[in-house]
Amino acid sequence: MKPNQKSSSGGYENFLCPFTDMYITQGAGEGTHKGTMAVDVRGTNSGVRYAYYAPCTLRCIKTYKESGQVMWQSTSEVRCANGYTGFVTLMTAHDDSMDAKIGQICPQGARLGNMGVKGNATGVHCHLEISQGKDTKWFKNKYGIYMFNNEKDLDQVCFFDDTNIMNRTEYLKPKYTTSPSNPGKNYVNLPPTISSWAIYDLSVSPVKKNAKAYLNPNKFGGLTYYVYAYHDNNTTAEIETRDYGRVKIYIYNTCAEITIDKPIYQSGNY
Questions:
Q1: pLDDT tens, 129-168?
Q2: CA distance 172 to 237
Q3: How far is it, in rounded angstroms, from Cα 199 to Cα 207?
Q4: Cβ-based burial of 183 (10 A; exposed 0-12, middle 13-18, buried ≥19)
């Protein structure tokens, strides 16, 4: 994300990646991150104390001055890349200039901190650990490494709008953005030959038992919906329906047609 960047949809802030340029020096489960979903990130040039920004509006929960470490939590429910909508809790570490105070509010897009070496750090970077939920328990796992409950990997939580991913692209798949990956407005078009198309809540797997309801393209001569985002390894599209609000539909290897700036059918929602 860029400084002062804002992003929201459906009344929720989108949880953005806090880095403008992101070079991962240690990924989840690696080295000193064993058993956790923590990542270490530096910027374009090693040794530079680049700023990072609030991925959503956050409140400072705890501070650890000896390691330049701060625990933050979203002030309200936010929207994540894996379809989760709810509170998010995160830890940043190694900020030599850390000046956060408990209770402080940091608006989305404001400077959250700077990369550094304070505490047990090798090279200038930001240590980032993210949990979905309000649980602030910070404990040692069986490997003796601190972590949250319900931690998630970076690409499950963050939308990567305006983040330059410099390495580890095989590690960060898919690259989610709050807007569809294709340029222009994306539409998903469901043909009138189909009479039943399952819809799912954003937070569940798109399997039959999780179907929330069904659309009937046949009844309306086909349906077209604006695509707000792609989820589940780009196999589902997030749409908004009149009766069920924001949901997702499975589109991979189906007869659904994605068009750019050109809806096909008159009925639907776009």
A1: 999 999 999 999 999 999 999 999 998 899 888 899 889 8
A2: 19
A3: 10
A4: exposed
Q: What is the DSSP string of 131-189?
A: EESS----EE-TTS-EE-TTB--HHHH-B-TT-EE-S-TTTS-S---SS-SSSS-EEEE
Q: What pLDDT score was predicted for residue 142?
A: 95
**Do the Cβ atoms of 102 and 63 come closer than 8 Å?**
yes
Residue keyed to tokens 């960060």: 172
Q: Which two tokens stand for residue 10?
A: 């459906």
Which pair of structure tokens corresponds to residue 25? 């020096």
pLDDT, residue 182, reads 44
Task: Provide the token pair at 29.
Answer: 């489960």
Could you tell me the CA-to-CA distances from 270 to 41, 53, 111, 161, 187 in Å, in that order? 38, 32, 35, 22, 8
Tell me whether strands 88-93 and 105-106 are parallel, antiparallel or unpaired: unpaired
Confidence of residue 172 (pLDDT cuts 50, 70, 90): low
Output the pLDDT for position 183.
44
Given a contact cutoff of 8 angstroms between Cβ atoms, the answer to whether 126 and 94 are in contact is yes
pLDDT at 19 (0 to 100): 96
Which residues make beta-bridge pairs with 125? 116
Which superfamily does CATH assign the domain made up of 8-165 to? Glucose Permease (Domain IIA) (2.70.70.10)
Residues 6+ apart with CB under 8 A from 179: 161, 229
